[in-house]
Amino acid sequence: TPDTIHITTTFEINDSVITTKSISCSNSAIDTFYMMGSMEDSLRVKYFLIKNDGYFDGEQREIPVFPSGLEETKGQFFVLDRDTTINPIFDQGLSTVTLYAKADELDILKDEINYLIDYKYACNEQLASKLKAMLAAKQICEARKERFRYEKESVEIIDRLLKNRQDNGMWGWWNRQGSSSWISLHVLEALVKAREMGFSVKLDIPMLTGDLVWKLQQNNSISDKIRIIRLLKMQDISIDLLKFLRELDQEKDKTLYEILSIIELKQLYGIPVKTDTIFSYAKKTLFGNLYFASKQSRWFYENEVQNALLAYRIISRDTSLAKESLVKIRNFLFENRRNGSWLNTYESARVMETLLPEIIQSGNQMQKAI
Questions:
Q1: Where do the DSSP E strands lie in the chain?
Q2: Do residues 273 and 265 lie in contact, with contact meaning Cβ atoms separated by under 8 Å?
Q3: Exposed/middle/buried for 267, CB within 10 Å: 0-12, 13-18, 19+?
Q4: Which parts of the chain have pLDDT scores under 50?
Q5: Helix ranges (DSSP H) in 9-168
Q6: How far apart are CA 293 and CA 307, in angstroms?
Q7: From residue 149, how far is each of 114, 140, 197, 204, 330 by CA, in Å?
Q8: Which residues have CB under 8 Å from 105's CB, separation 6+?
Q9: What 8-state DSSP symbol labels residue 276?
Q10: Among 265, 227, 230, 220, residue whose Cα is nearest residue 246
Q11: Cα angle 181, 182, 188; round to 5
Q12: CA dist., res. 179 & res. 169, Å (int)
């Protein structure tokens, strides 16, 4: 209005009045109050104003108070699939110990899904991991005939990932900066899965295909070529890949991750391969679970967990292989969740998307049997 308005403003903390002011407001008024919290409690802050004619307005906010520094989770994860006695030893210098027990593997994956969805940061890898978590939640909801709560958030992440895409159809770490084949594969897996599950995802496949075929013919690393071939396979691109797979076979000094990846690629393309050779690389943990260790690795994501996931997928697809080993690999993966989640968002998403279909299917079969 053209008139000056006379108001009284008040700040309260935990229902105690801290300051009251009389203000004459012609255009605007900025009211500021500095405060400091203590570790004993959180703060409930109220700010309100009253006009001379009795008009009242205000807001109340809860402000949590946290200790300075980082919070670290330290713990152990035990898989009890038979009569078992455990004797955990706890660090006396740390705070209170909390014991959690779950009777369903799906509950563990649901915890991991929530961890990914609530993760604070959002580079392209983390956005793709969040999207994979939401799609996993959707799969669980469909299996249990429950309402899916992340429809809007899934669409928002899909839009952000598409906006962050490079002109050549690839993705880097942040926004539209740089280009990385492993991040591109991770993002594209999430987007293709979202499209399969009914979301609208506009992908420029011809542009991506041309760039990938060109990259495949260059002198890239073994790992990059493996990821490029996987990207092409995801889009059902009809090119002669037998030549490239033979070249990968002939490469020397391959890591176990690369050896298992090549076996999986041959399996995906219907090329004859002795999948049972993977058991020659298997080792047992103290609890008798299976893992696939390698002394050599080139990247942080070429580790024992990723090797186990590759072996798990290979065994799952081959009906001639004994499925008992899947349980032992799965338990190894659960063993590695000793600090409340897996190593990082990428690893969490990879474990979750690999294990979820089998666990949902097992749960459905159990319900039918009951």
A1: 5-13, 16-25, 43-51, 56-63, 283-284, 290-291
A2: no
A3: middle
A4: 364-370
A5: 105-117, 124-144, 151-163
A6: 7
A7: 12, 12, 15, 29, 28
A8: 330, 334, 355, 359
A9: G
A10: 265
A11: 85
A12: 9
Give residue 295's pLDDT.
66
Identify the residue whose tokens are 């706890």: 90
d(CA 205, CA 80): 46
Residue 70's region, left for phi above 0, alpha for psi from -120 to 50, else beta, is beta
Contact 256, 281 (CB under 8 A): yes
**Residue 335, token pair as written in the block:** 């063993």
Q: Which residues 6+ apart lie within 8 Å of 194 measured at CB? A: 131, 135, 154, 158, 201
How much is the pLDDT for 369? 35
Identify any residues that bridge with 16 across adjacent strands, giving them in sequence order.
13
Q: How far apart are CA 290 and CA 48, in angstroms?
A: 62
69: left (phi over 0), alpha (psi -120 to 50) or beta: left
Count the neighbouring beta carbons within 10 Å of the beta carbon of residue 285. 14
The answer to whether 164 and 176 are in contact (CB under 8 A) is: yes
One-letter amino acid of 336: N
Report, in angstroms and rounded to the nearest whole number, the Rg of the chain calculated over CA atoms. 27
The edge-to-edge listing of strands for the beta sheet with 43-51 is 16-25, 5-13, 43-51, 56-63
State how far the alpha carbon of 272 is from the alpha carbons of 60, 263, 318, in Å.
67, 9, 12
Q: Are 248 and 259 in contact (CB under 8 A)?
A: no
For position 20, what pLDDT does the model report?
Answer: 92
Structure-token match 């979301």, residue found: 199
Q: What is the DSSP string of 209-267?
A: HHHHHHHHTS---HHHHHHHHHHHHHTT-----HHHHHHHHH-SS--HHHHHHHHHHHH
DSSP H helix total and E strand total for the chain: 11, 6
Number of Cβ within a 10 Å radius of residue 168: 15
pTM for the whole structure: 0.65
Sole residue written with tokens 């391969």? 273
Determine the Cα–Cα distance for residues 260 and 264; give it in Å rounded to an integer.
6
